[in-house]
Specification:
The complex is a heterotrimer of chains A (about 450), B (about 260) and C (about 325). With about 450 residues, chain A is mainly alpha-helical. Chain A is built from 16 helices and 6 strands. Helix content of chain A is about 70%, strand content about 5%. In chain A, the strands form 3 sheets. Chain A has a two-stranded antiparallel sheet with strand order 1-4. A two-stranded antiparallel sheet of chain A has the order 2-3. Chain A has a two-stranded antiparallel sheet with strand order 5-6. In chain A, strand 5 and strand 6 form a beta hairpin. Chain B contains 10 helices and 2 strands; from the N terminus they run αααααααββααα. Chain B folds into 2 domains: about 110 residues, Orthogonal Bundle (Cytochrome Bc1 Complex, Chain D, domain 2), CATH 1.10.760; about 80 residues, Orthogonal Bundle (Cytochrome Bc1 Complex, Chain D, domain 2), CATH 1.10.760. Chain B has a two-stranded antiparallel ribbon with strand order 1-2. Chain B is elongated and about 85 Å long. In chain C, a hairpin with a 6-residue loop joins strand 7 and strand 8. Chain C is flat. Chain C starts with a helix and ends in a 22-residue tail after the last strand. The chains are: A mainly alpha (about 450), B mainly alpha (about 260), C alpha+beta (about 325). Chains in contact: A-B, A-C, B-C. At the A-C interface, helix 5, helix 7, helix 8, helix 9 and strand 4 of A face helix 3 and strand 1 of C.
Chain lengths: ~450, ~260, ~325
């Protein structure tokens, strides 16, 4: 049977040599190498559940009145889009499960991507010959953030409407071209023409998934072409690990299934984005405590922390306020990530190929810079939840904002030097330890001799 | 990350109701049985309220302008025309008495007996012709209309599912412990920074719908499962990291590590 | 009957008996040999069974009408089916599949030096025949660039990219009445202190950022609008109207704070619930706190002879979030 299949494929596609190579491709054995796989399987779940949801979603902002089964919305005006998502949640059997799983998968997807990115950064896996793989990964992250934002936005519930308003303000704040760009994307000033929702819908379900899928394929092909990295004490010449088949295959299938299991269990058991509680959106409505999904939380922190000013010359507004926290901040973060490999090459002069990974302590400066950057982003992120901390702990919001305005600049510097010191101490400790061992061995040899 | 954990714990626990007696403590006058209600109310008022609201409810316009009964230099608004409605609201929610006239009143343990509250309400009502304690009829209200009205009048501060929120200068409390009468009172009183909605702005019939919605929002249809606070993306992000990612990293750890060398 | 029994026994034997496939000699094998692990196999079988049960459970739960907590049951059954199968695959991966350590060569920097050179040569030599190389390159770039531009041109149809007039436009014109959500006109004597009202332009689309306004009444003595804003035009009887859309990020300003006891409590203000920009209605909407970079646009008002509120004109500045040069024009009258 197997022989028949292989012969069939080889005679018609010449696939045997490739298959043989693929089956014996070597996977180094380390848990952190599986983080990227988790992200991949989340993407698979997203595509699957997403296709199902498109069968029921209505991308239209036309006004309609709800007469469905959920009583607290009966008789209210809302858009067709919002109504269709309420129907997915209440009338379509298993619709709510698939919708919630889709949303959880998006949240977990980005989290897995970011963990994967942290592993790549702190172990130096982005270095030659894998820089291209790294750039493609970053681009996917960027597209994923946009993809998630659009998904959150097209439901047209109260939170998504407020999120779109903020996105519009950030687009509008871009220097020089902002207003023209916003006019183009929204077809006029906010909330834009009726065609705007079909634009973000087609971007969410077609354009961006295809772009991400294409980059994903390139990412995987490049990983395979350059082979996986590995940790010491392995060599730069030979990659050591388990083969695709039989070693890696059951593990990867298991991880796919674990990922799907976690996502479906969350989708069934923990409520996410209960849009029927938020109610429909109208331009004049807002709710306290509106937040974007977690992966855009750093931007709301950025928007809130910037002191109140527009950059003007006389009465001429050059750069409006949302630009700093909503556009420049993520721009700086991504520019740092894109430029870092080049920066490190310039500074260290290390232009060589690296297949063997560093432990974070082996490169005190890289680890320190990365940790400082991370502290910066995380603290801006936390500042975005200062209002909630106020309600729950009673600490004055205005005071908190001022504390954060100082902390987000001071803490990264502190973390930079502390991390560098810790790395150096760890290395020094290891050196002492190895010298002690060498001395002991020498002493042992002496007494033996 | 530890900060997030603190938030997670805080979200899991209901906000603790803190008792805030004024520094001088509560004065319970020993009135003989049969004392008229207003008379008992006056005694209670004199012992517990007059340092901020004046000896006859005329108010104390500036901090430390009047030495009150409890030797507390206080300041507070006049109670001449606030009526039973206001007194009932502030006393039954534990908003009053306040430990420091500069603080925002907040829900705390009620330190008076029901009879004592009735007496003080009667006394404050006797100061002028203010409104009586309202009698809302939430059963006549419509939850859908209530959601709509709540969104346009209340959600900006109290959050759309009435979980509370922040205003520069104050906190809009969650309404999970509010009774129908207290909501009706608060809408008319406008405690602290809250607007004062008259029957012209929100009619009694509309108010019934709002109260019906707030009652519904305490236990809404959580058909998605565990509601995790109904706050939206913040607790959802915590679940993402602390449940999903922890579980998936654990499965990575289990699946890796097959080679011994 | 007996025949059926025979078949059943035969089937069971076939299924349950352990097979001993002919193993190849060690020298010929690619995948290394290892002894079987019957206990792990039993585990895998059990997990497969549980996974099937849970999956069937999912179908049953789906088929049931009027099951309370149906979403939860669906999630649990499907999640468990996946989890059991995942556990089975984990056992297979860790216990049943041969553990082998393989090594493979990494690519090295000098692997393709010859190929690199060849590619360069092919490209360079192919251009050798061209005598006016620089001019041709320039011409090619011009053709390609303009074609690219031409292909991008239809994108302009997406929106009024060069026409900013709609960004300055609002539905408010002189004489337009302020109406409530149900379309009933607001009367000046119906506007009370310590409340906020949301008003819309009569007969206009409400779902635009120029439409909703906040209306409040302050004591005329508390107003400090500045000399360029006469109280009679901007705050008749102390009534003020401001755009409801925050000038920072475009959220609706659904918060009006007013002190119950002004001695100890902050002054009246509009607060945006998104990033807590705080605006002072007494001073023409200036920013008290938060990230907003310009005041809230104010709508001049008049009280008509019937006592109803009408717009006296358009806002004093563009509504909504700011853009490059936002203050260059006033909203059209």
């Amino acid at each position: 049977m197997i022989r028949k299949v292989v012969r069939y494929l080889d005679e018609r596609a010449g696939a045997a040599p490739l298959l043989r190579k693929a089956l014996r491709y070597v996977f180094p054995d380390h848990w952190s190498f599986l983080l990227g796989e988790v992200a991949l399987y989340c993407f698979v779940v997203l595509v699957g559940t997403g296709i199902y949801l498109t069968f029921f979603f209505e991308p239209s902002t036309l006004d309609t009145v709800y007469h469905g089964s959920y009583r607290p919305l009966q008789g209210l005006h809302m858009s067709e889009a919002y109504k269709s998502v309420v129907n997915i949640s209440f009338s379509v059997k298993a619709g709510l499960l698939l919708r919630q799983t889709h949303h959880w998968a998006a949240n977990v997807f980005v989290a897995a991507v970011i963990l994967h990115l942290l592993r790549i950064f702190f172990t130096g896996a982005f270095r030659k010959p894998r820089t291209l793989t790294y750039f493609i990964g970053l681009t996917m992250l960027l597209l994923t953030l946009l993809e998630g934002y659009l998904g959150y936005s097209m439901v047209d519930d109260l939170l998504s409407g407020m999120g779109l308003a903020i996105g519009y303000a950030v687009a509008l704040s871009l220097p020089f071209i902002g207003a023209n760009l916003a006019a183009l994307l929204w077809n006029g000033p906010y909330p834009g023409g009726h065609d705007f929702i079909s634009r973000i819908y087609i971007a969410h379900v077609l354009v961006l998934p295809i772009a991400i899928g294409t980059l994903l394929t390139m990412h995987l092909v490049l990983v395979a072409a350059r082979h996986h990295t590995q940790f010491t004490p392995r060599s730069e010449r030979k990659v050591v690990g388990v083969p695709t088949f039989p070693g890696q295959t059951p593990r990867s299938i298991a991880l796919t299934l674990w990922t799907a299991a976690v996502l479906f269990l969350l989708g069934g058991l923990i409520q996410i984005n209960p849009i029927w509680l938020w109610g429909p959106y109208h331009v004049g409505d807002a709710t306290n405590g509106a937040q974007p999904d977690w992966y855009l939380g750093w931007l709301i922190g950025g928007l809130r922390l910037v002191p109140g000013f527009d950059w003007t010359i006389g009465n001429y507004t050059l750069v409006p306020n949302p630009f700093w926290g909503g556009a420049l901040f993520p721009l700086v973060v991504f520019a740092f990530l894109y430029l870092y490999p080049w920066l490190e090459r310039k500074v260290t002069g290390d232009n060589a190929w690296h297949h063997v990974l560093d432990r974070p302590r082996d490169r005190p400066w890289r680890t320190a810079i990365g940790m400082a950057m991370l502290t910066w982003i995380v603290f801006v992120f936390i500042a975005g939840s200062a209002d909630r901390a106020l309600v729950d702990f009673g600490v004055s919001y205005v005071k908190q904002i001022w504390v954060y305005r100082v902390l987000v600049w001071v803490l990264p510097v502190v973390v930079l030097f502390v991390t560098k010191r810790v790395c150096e101490e760890l290395l020094a400790g290891e050196k002492v330890e190895s010298e002690r061992r060498a001395a002991e061995r020498a002493a042992l040899l002496d007494t033996a001799g | 990350m530890r900060w997030l954990l603190v938030i997670a714990v805080a979200l899991a626990l209901p906000p603790a109701a803190l008792a805030d007696p004024p520094p001088s403590g509560i004065v319970h006058p020993s009135a003989p049985p049969g004392t008229p209600l207003v008379e008992l109310g006056y005694q209670l008022y004199a012992g517990n309220c007059s340092s901020c609201h004046g000896s006859k409810g005329e108010g104390v316009p500036k901090l430390g302008a009047v030495e009150g009964a409890g030797d507390v230099p206080g300041a507070g608004p006049s109670l001449r025309s606030v009526g039973a409605l206001s007194a009932d609201f502030y006393l039954r929610t534990g908003y009053m008495p306040l430990d420091d006239p500069g603080h925002q009143p907040h829900r705390s343990r009620v330190l008076f007996s029901n009879h004592e509250i009735e007496a003080m309400v009667a006394y404050v009502a006797s100061l002028g012709n203010g409104p009586p304690v309202p009698k809302p009829h939430p059963e006549r209200g419509n939850v859908a209309e209530g959601l709509h009205l709540f969104t346009s009048h209340c959600a900006g501060c109290h959050q759309v599912v009435a979980r509370g929120g922040y205003v520069t200068g104050g906190v809009a409390p969650p309404l999970s412990n509010s009774t129908a009468v207290q909501i009706a009172e608060a809408v008319r009183v406008g405690p602290y920074l809250m607007p004062t909605f008259s029957p012209h702005a929100i009619s009694d019939r509309q108010l019934d719908s709002i109260i019906a919605y707030v009652a519904y929002a305490k236990h809404p249809d959580d058909r998605g499962g565990w509601s995790i606070g109904r706050l939206g993306p913040v607790p959802e992000g915590l679940v993402t990291w602390w449940i999903a990612i922890v579980a998936l990293v654990a499965s990575c750890l289990v699946l890796a590590g097959r080679l011994k060398s | 009957m007996t025949k059926f029994k025979d078949w059943l026994v035969a089937g069971a034997v076939l299924l349950l008996s352990k097979t001993h496939p002919s193993r190849r000699d060690d020298e010929q094998r690619i995948v290394p040999d290892a002894p079987p692990d019957p206990r792990a196999e039993t585990w895998v079988l059990a997990l497969f069974g549980l996974a099937s049960l849970a999956a069937v459970g999912f179908i049953v739960v789906y088929a049931l009408d009027r099951l309370s907590h149906q979403t939860q049951w669906l999630g649990v059954t499907l999640g468990l089916a996946l989890a059991f199968l995942a556990a089975a695959c984990t056992v297979i991966g860790k216990r049943l599949v041969a553990t082998e350590e393989l090594a493979e060569d990494y690519p090295q920097p000098d692997d393709h030096v010859g190929d690199q050179e060849a590619v360069v040569e092919i490209v360079e030599e192919s251009g050798d025949r061209l005598s006016r190389k620089r001019l041709l390159k320039l011409g090619g770039a011009a053709a390609g660039g303009s074609l690219g531009l031409a292909l991008l041109t239809p994108a302009v149809s997406l929106g009024p990219v060069f026409d900013m007039s709609r960004f300055y436009g609002t539905p408010w014109t002189r004489g337009r009445r302020l109406v409530d959500e149900r379309g009933r006109p607001y009367r000046a004597d119906g506007i009370e202190e310590a409340v906020f009202y949301t008003a819309y332009p009569e007969g206009a689309d409400r779902e635009t950022i120029g439409a909703p306004v906040l209306v409040v009444r302050l004591k005329p003595a508390a107003l400090h609008l500045g000399s360029h804003k006469p109280v009679a035009e901007w705050a008749p009887q102390g009534i003020l109207a401001y755009s409801k859309i925050c000038t920072h990020a475009g959220c609706a300003i659904a918060l009006y704070r007013k002190p119950t006891f002004p001695v100890t409590e902050p002054r009246p203000a509009f607060v945006c619930p998104c990033h807590y920009s705080t605006f002072d209605p007494a001073t023409g909407g200036t920013v008290l706190f938060g990230p907003a970079g310009r005041p809230l646009p104010q709508l001049p008002l008049l009280v008509d002879p019937r006592g109803q509120l009408r717009a006296r004109g358009n806002f004093d500045q563009p509504v909504g979030p700011s853009w490059w040069g936002v203050r260059m024009e006033k909203p059209n009258p």
